[in-house]
Design a protein that fits this description.
This protein has about 70 residues and is α+β, with helices and mostly antiparallel strands. It has one helix at about 35-55, and strands spanning about 1-10, 15-25, 30-35.
Length: about 70
């Protein structure tokens, strides 16, 4: 997976927007708004890590009971 991020600022200086693109099997757009550029980027990084961890987690079939009567 590849993460690309861009920083944008509001015209009135009220905050910074970080827009990230997490590219893999499907591209996911991540958005974080904060007061500082570093905090906005950290928000995107945390989201990307959470998604990458969720994808990497092994998936197990639910337990089922089979009645053979």
């Amino acid at each position: 997976m590849t993460l690309t991020a861009r920083l944008l600022s509001f015209p009135n200086g009220s905050g910074i927007v970080a827009v990230g693109f997490l590219e893999g099997h499907k591209t996911v757009v991540l958005i974080s708004v904060n007061e500082t550029p570093w905090s906005a980027l950290q928000g995107v990084f945390v989201q990307a890590k959470w998604i990458a961890d969720a994808i990497a987690t092994p998936k197990y079939a639910p337990l089922t009971t089979i009645n053979l009567n």
